[in-house]
């Protein structure tokens, strides 16, 4: 029998960009974000990973975790939209991006590319027995869920991931199974 991998994926806490509805840059957590992590318990862990951005590293630190940075947990690259509010993006381009998962009007990364990147990461993590915690971004967590469920990329925007929330999966044998999604504090 193969060993079980228990994966808890934690969404970074609130940032000013999230609160204002801007495309993310490499911003820090805001005061609300720091408070959201008070009392959040991820349980016992064997391996802790996080994305390279400041907000994921800060989330790990505030949870008292020493995380290794894994570039494959980086946020969806929004290219030249980074830091812009939604009203500063051409409506036609935004609509195309939200309805065509393989499009990339911002010259960053498409949703389909993100899902592929995360698929590779999940394949590697499936060979890491024990309890793994990964602190990352809502977009990456959506991609994790879509991969686990073998759902189509067009479902990407139908999944809401709250700041400082946990999504739990396990892997035994051949497939990932979604165990639960726990909202943040």
Low-confidence stretches: none
Note the gap between the termini. Answer: 37 Å
Structural class: alpha/beta
Percent in helix: 25-40%
Per CATH, the architecture is 3-Layer(aba) Sandwich
Binned strand content:
15-25%
CATH-defined topology: Rossmann fold
How would a crystallographer describe the biggest sheet? 6 strands, mixed
Strand order of the largest sheet: 3-2-4-1-5-6
Total helical segments: 6
Total beta strand runs? 6
Query: What is the CATH domain class?
Result: Alpha Beta
**Nearest-angstrom radius of gyration?**
16 Å
User: What order do the SSEs take from the amino end to the carboxyl end, as H and E?
Assistant: EHHEHEHHEHEE
Protein described:
- The protein starts with a strand and ends with a strand.
- Helix content is 30%, strand content 19%.
- The protein is globular.
- It contains six helices and six strands, in the order βααβαβααβαββ.
- The model has no long low-confidence stretch (mean pLDDT 95).
- It has a six-stranded mixed sheet.
- The chain has one domain (4-182): Phosphoglycerate mutase-like (Rossmann fold), CATH 3.40.50.1240.
- It has helices at 16-20, 31-36, 54-62, 91-99, 111-125, 138-149, and strands at residues 5-11, 47-50, 68-69, 130-136, 166-172, 175-182.
- It comes from Mycolicibacterium helvum.
- This is Phosphoglycerate mutase.
- InterPro entries: His_Pase_superF_clade-1, His_PPase_superfam.
């Amino acid at each position: 029998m193969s060993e079980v991998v228990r994966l808890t994926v934690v969404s970074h806490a609130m940032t000013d960009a999230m609160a204002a509805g801007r495309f993310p840059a490499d911003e820090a957590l805001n005061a609300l974000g720091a408070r959201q992590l008070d009392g959040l318990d991820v349980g016992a862990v064997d391996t802790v990973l996080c994305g390279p951005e400041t907000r994921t590293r800060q989330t790990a630190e505030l949870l008292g975790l020493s995380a290794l940075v894994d570039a494959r947990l980086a946020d969806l690259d929004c290219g030249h939209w980074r830091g812009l509010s939604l009203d500063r993006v051409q409506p036609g381009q935004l609509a195309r991006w939200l309805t065509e998962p393989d499009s990339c009007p911002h010259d960053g990364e498409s949703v389909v590319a993100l899902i592929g990147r995360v698929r590779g990461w999940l394949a590697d993590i499936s060979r890491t027995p024990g309890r793994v915690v990964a602190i990352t971004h809502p977009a990456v967590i959506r991609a994790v869920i879509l991969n686990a469920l073998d759902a189509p990329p067009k479902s990407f925007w139908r999944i809401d991931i709250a700041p400082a929330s946990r999504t739990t999966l396990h892997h035994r044998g051949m497939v990932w199974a979604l165990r639960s999604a726990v909202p943040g504090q």
